[in-house]
Amino acid sequence: MSFEQQYKVIGKTKLKKLSTVPDFEMNPKKAIRKLEELSRHLSKFQELMYAHNRYSFLICIQGMDAAGKDSLIREVFKSFNARGVVVQSFKKPTSTELEHDYLWRHYVALPEKGKFTVFNRTHYENVLVSRVHPEIVLTERLPQIKTTKELTAGFWEKRYREIVNFEEHISNNGVIVLKFFLHLGKEEQKSRILRRLSKEKHHWKFSPEDVREREFWEDYQSYYEETIEQTSTTTCPWYVIPADDKALCRYIFASILLEVTERLTDVSLPELPDAIKDNLSKYRERLLQED
């Protein structure tokens, strides 16, 4: 079974039943070499896709704090032409963003044709963090919501439908949407946060929120399960990837991307118009005759 088939979400999702470590082992150095090879293949595909000018990729990455999102993006996409991949990291909405609906800032960050865009944290924060801390929704100043008591199950179900419709719309217009949850164990997260605290060069990565949010671990797991179940579709699937081993997590992630790109068999270099193709020798001769 391919990684794409193995880790794609189909039906009910119970994160407690899914391991945070892969069911295979690989020498760390070999994993790095394999990742570098995969990254080069993906980079070549992106260049071909840019010339084809019909598709783009939106890669959505979610995970608990310290799940390895930043380093995964850095290592997987480092072989790409800098113009071929854009990384968007979404933090708390700005005052300008709050003047629009919650999807607006994500819509304007969508990839141009021929490019990969990576959302490091995504529009799904609006049904995850906002679900754990519902007071955040009040900052959106929705006409029908005055207090958190009005955030019923129906409200969240409607928001799931809005997100699915958003992704379906962009998918119909050539954006390949792939969503990844980096499935990190609670003890591994604790170890990673402690490492940040023990080394001064990593102190900048630490936020007191990393510790406070651990108190809501079970809530997050529950809402991730519901979110993934409600929004994983045939055209815009979710993948749950074990994230306790960073090297293997990156390898699995890149393997899935490559598997998806290989199915796009219509991506090819465009043909030159006959009027240009028939005169290539003339253009060459003209250039050679320049002073």
Task: Please provide a written account of the structure.
The protein has helices spanning 3-7, 28-52, 69-76, 104-107, 129-132, 135-138, 153-172, 186-198, 208-212, 217-231, 246-262, 274-277, 280-288; strands spanning 56-63, 85-89, 116-120, 175-183, 238-242. It has a five-stranded parallel β-sheet with strand order 2-3-1-4-5, sandwiched between helices. The protein has 13 helices and five strands. It is α/β, with parallel strands linked by helices. Helix 4 (104-107) links the parallel strand 2 (85-89) and strand 3.
Summarize the structure.
It contains 13 helices and 5 strands. The protein is of the alpha/beta class and 291 residues long.
Q: What's the SSE pattern?
A: HHEHEHEHHHEHHHEHHH
Number of helices: 13
As a percent range, the share of helical residues equals 40-55%
> Low-confidence stretches at least 5 residues in length (pLDDT < 50)?
none
Mean pLDDT: 95
Question: Major beta sheet, specifics?
Answer: 5 strands, parallel
Alpha-beta content class: alpha/beta
Shape annotation: globular
Tell how many strands the DSSP assignment holds: 5
Radius of gyration: 22 Å
Query: Order of strands across the biggest sheet?
Result: 2-3-1-4-5
Terminal Cα separation, in Å? 61 Å
List the helices and strands and how they pair.
Blueprint: H1 3-7, H2 28-52, E1 56-63, H3 69-76, E2 85-89, H4 104-107, E3 116-120, H5 129-132, H6 135-138, H7 153-172, E4 175-183, H8 186-198, H9 208-212, H10 217-231, E5 238-242, H11 246-262, H12 274-277, H13 280-288
